[in-house]
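writing this on my phone so excuse typos. first protein, seq and then structure
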Amino acid sequence: MKYTKGAVTVADQIAMLRERGLVIADEPLAAHYLSTISYYRLAGYLLPLQNDKVNHLYKPGSHFEQAVDMYRFDQKLRALVLSITELIEVSIRTRLIYTLSLQHSPWWFEDPSLFNSPDEHADFLAAVDRELEHSHEEFIRDHRRRYGDDERRPPAWKTLEVATFGALSRLYGNIRPTLAGRGDIADFFLVPRENYLSGWLQSISQVRNICAHHARLWNRTITATPRHIKRIQRPELRYNPISDSQRHKLYAVLCVMNYLLYTIEPAYSLRRHLVELFAEFPEVDTGAMGFPTDWQEQPLWKSR
């Protein structure tokens, strides 16, 4: 079956939405948003307003402005989450570089004997080589000028600075569980040495990529779900186990991000930022992101 639909003008998009029951009170404003944001980017925010998702018919009283408000909320949510992932990424990168460089060598990341999967390790090196090849960082250029005869990649504190967060999360996840230093990294972030942190980083990396590509984050399904620690030792870090309905929602990832912030940026109040954002957009369905009604009362959130 071939796709046969043609391009539709903004005026026709507005007419179509009205025919389907969507209230558009300010047509020039709607035309502006459809011209600058695009219909298909707004479609993800229009979908919850529909009661017939096959024929795309809208619930009585649904307004175009509701979708725009959700879009604005999502913009601010992505900006907030992206700023937190930066804090986490920089801290994880730092601990990974220096802990294993001191325990092993500045080129530990090149040694296949330190990793579980040779294939995954080879994929990582190929990815980091691409980053090195295209890097315009002065410290990489300077290294090439100074040490052009050294066939090795630059040491970890240079090479891993240009690796993506996704590549770093996979690199950490591939380290042999018994390797000296791996457990120390988990200890630093107050995470059990079992395989929790690697899964957390994969979840955070997925959310970071959603934000970086300006994709919809509100009510998004997160496929890389973080494991809940069964026995959290610090009382102030405890939070209720994530239910099945919450596992693939943003709330589960925000919980582990807030957990990591306890070590990385203790004074940072993610709860305050979220409460302010929700107050600015009171119509937002926080349950669609997996937030339980009592989330602010749980120690992890109440303490900061």
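second protein below, same order as before
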Amino acid sequence: MSMIQVEELIKQYDKAKTPAVKGVSFAVNEGEFFAFLGPNGAGKTTTISILTTTLAKTSGIVTIAGYDVEKEAEQVREKVGIIFQKPSLDLQLSAEENIRFHACLYGMYSYRPTFSFMPKEYKNRVMELAEIVGIGDAIFKPVKKMSGGMQRKLEIIRSLMHTPAVLFLDEPTQGLDAVSRRSLWEYINNVRKEHGTTVFLTTHYIDEAENVDKVCIINQGQVARCCPPEEMKKSLMRKEIILDAEDQMGLASELSELGLFHKKDDVHIIVPYQDSTAQEIISRLKTKLTVLEIKEPSLEDAYVEYLNKTGGTAA
């Protein structure tokens, strides 16, 4: 079944001339890694806020794990974990106290006044997650004395404590260093494999969405495209072979004789291709090459090109 189902979702803010979300529809299957991308102001945050029960919709159908996000909000919250883009921590508490209150509110454990009184299972999980995201030494430190990056890591721990069926990641690695980013993604991928967790990602680091199962681009409040990354790259962009030779004019002439479209940048000759393989093209050339580079389009390349074509602004 679909773990997330959105049908004709509309959100009209008071006094706004047009809806922020205009009939958005998409589905996310159980265990799927789903990326929701779009420029600033496209409707991403509004949609996510509705999905996570923090904002009421104007109309449409939205369900998480079969539960209606408005009529059965409590059941939805039990199924989801959320890493918000904006911090939602109590700065007056320690890092561990923030986690403990969260875990107890979710009904995972009965509340105990100190960490030492909590069950062994709780203590082991907190310390395991703290080590994974890199704040093991600061887990009992007051949150107000932690850096922004450390607070981000704390929110990640809190969202993963109850092993949610659906994990919403709204800019999850913002403020994290490269090592912490890698550790987090390794852990999330392991969680997906072990528990079949559905992951819903929004990010400005488009490379983080390179290996998702499905990408959904929202632009100007509407779903512009929803498909696997490879399909998006194939439909929007061509692959390229970058070539050069001591006899550049001779190389260009040979390409023309072979009927291979090519163009020249400031230095090299570029041969776009789609249906053939790079090897098939190169094997036909007799001119001795001095430069040979095969350029595969990235998801970010395709995303930027799509927004440029549709009048959006990448962000």
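Residues 96 and 171 are 23 Å apart (CA to CA). thats all i got for now
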